[in-house]
From TrEMBL:
MF annotations from Gene Ontology: kinase activity
Domain called Signal transduction histidine kinase subgroup 3 dimerisation and phosphoacceptor: residue spans: 200-266
Record keywords: Kinase, Membrane, Transferase, Transmembrane, Transmembrane helix, Two-component regulatory system
InterPro entries given in the database record: HATPase_C_sf (IPR036890), Sensor_HK_TwoCompSys (IPR050482), Sig_transdc_His_kin_sub3_dim/P (IPR011712)
Source organism (scientific name): Promicromonospora alba
PANTHER family in UniProt: NITRATE/NITRITE SENSOR PROTEIN NARX-RELATED, SENSOR HISTIDINE KINASE DESK
Membrane-spanning segments: 22-43, 49-70, 82-100, 106-122, 129-147, 159-179
Residue ranges the record marks as coiled coil: none
Protein name: Sensor histidine kinase
Transferase as UniProt keyword: yes
Record's signal peptide: none
Length: 408
């Protein structure tokens, strides 16, 4: 049958205990059936002592070999040749002696149990095929032997081997299948946990990128300006560096809040933060937001609009030379429409209409498909589409407009 995932240690899921229970169930079934069935016959004084000893030893060897093979199968390990030979040889002897003495009720138990264990190492279809052949072969052997001995009860010689195959085979394969399903479910549970961790790491990375992107871009611009003013206007350079110091402090506080899990993306907070950062960068900002409309939006769409504001502001600072920007939130059917407009498109970057996805005017920036970091407008467009919204960006003249719509 198909191999289950290997599980070595118990991580709290109880799978290792379940594996042990499966082994005890399978090995215990083989041991108990063989022990009880053959035990009385081994104590029969009418049977020669040598044959009883040979049968007892071969039966014990069959039980041990089947137990070892079951353990290897459940651990998804290949069977060793030595144990395969031991199991096959012992089962053959344990069957041949009673069969030669006309004990048609017990001779087939050892081979039926051993074959049922061995087929567990085969693919599912082949395993059932071998069991089908065994279901025909063992009764045929019993029937032919009974005919040769002039046994009057031929039916007993035929149906007992068939019963043993039917009893052992499906039970063995069924318990193995239960183990495989449990192991795969545990793998799926573990994978789901790993994916959740990876998703949270990506979310954290995106939030950290956006926080640092806002502030570091302004810090870079302000630092460059201060360096240029250091000799010509020391007082203004000092004032600019104080602004840099304040921005660095804001970035540090927001980063700490993010790490501690206190920071949440909201539309109102992002617009307020964007206005503050843009103003510090010398951009005149007009924010016209319907507070009641923003509050009426569900948390998910409102959070996505906040991310759009954050990304558009970062790209504006990084890639444009805007002097004015506007952020407007208006009703749009059953939802809302957010427009972020700036006048900072560089003429050399215009393509005459819809902005290209491989880089270009302000507003796309490193978060585009060309940038490849997966945190920009292209990524946000996909997330908005997934919740029934839409995100687009266009340029006309020196103006660049980002438009996001969400449903209420």
């Amino acid at each position: 049958m198909s191999s289950p995932p290997t599980v070595v240690d118990d991580d709290g899921s109880g799978l290792a205990s379940f594996r042990r229970n499966i082994w005890w169930g399978l090995a215990g079934t083989v041991a108990c059936v063989l022990g009880f069935a053959v035990g009385d016959w081994l104590l029969d004084p009418d049977v020669p002592a040598g044959l009883r000893a040979l049968t007892g030893l071969s039966t014990a060897a069959t039980i041990v070999a089947c137990g070892v093979l079951l353990a290897r199968r459940i651990r998804d390990e290949a069977p060793s040749t030595g144990w395969l030979v031991t199991a096959g040889g012992a089962a053959t002897v344990a069957a041949a002696v009673p069969l030669a003495l006309g004990e048609f009720g017990i001779w087939s138990i050892a081979p039926a149990a051993t074959i049922s264990v061995l087929v567990m190492f085969l693919p599912s279809r082949r395993a059932w095929l071998v069991l089908g052949v065994t279901l025909v072969l063992l009764p045929a052997v019993g029937l032919l032997t009974a005919l040769g001995m002039d046994e009057p009860h031929l039916g007993h010689a035929a149906w007992m081997p068939a019963l043993m195959v039917v009893a052992f085979g499906p039970a063995m394969l069924g318990m193995l299948r239960g183990w495989q399903v449990a192991a795969r479910l545990d793998d799926a549970r573990r994978l789901a946990g790993q994916l959740a961790v990876a998703d949270e790491r990506l979310r954290f990375a995106a939030d950290l990128h956006d926080i640092q992107g806002h502030h570091l871009q302004v810090i870079a611009l302000k630092s460059e300006l201060a360096a240029r003013l250091a000799e010509a206007d020391p007082a203004r350079a000092a004032a600019t560096m104080r602004e840099v110091q304040q921005l660095a402090g804001d970035a540090l506080r927001e980063t700490r809040s993010l790490v501690q899990g206190y920071r949440r993306t909201t539309l109102d907070a992002e617009i307020a933060n964007a206005s503050k950062v843009l103003t510090a960068a010398g951009v005149e900002v007009l924010a016209d937001v319907d507070a009641d409309l923003a509050a009426s939006l569900p948390q998910g769409p409102r959070s996505l609009l906040g991310l759009v504001v954050r990304e558009a502001t970062t790209n504006l600072l990084r890639h444009s030379r805007a002097t004015r920007a506007a952020m407007v939130l208006v009703p749009d059917g059953a939802g809302a429409r957010l427009l972020i407009d700036n006048d900072g498109v560089r003429p050399a970057e215009l393509d005459g209409g819809q902005v290209g996805l491989d880089g270009g005017p302000a507003g796309l920036g490193s978060g585009s498909a060309g940038g490849g970091d997966g945190t920009g407008l292209v990524s946000l467009a996909e997330r908005l589409d997934a919740v029934g919204g839409h995100l687009s960006w266009t340029s006309e003249g020196d103006r660049f407009v980002v438009t996001a719509t969400v449903t209420g």
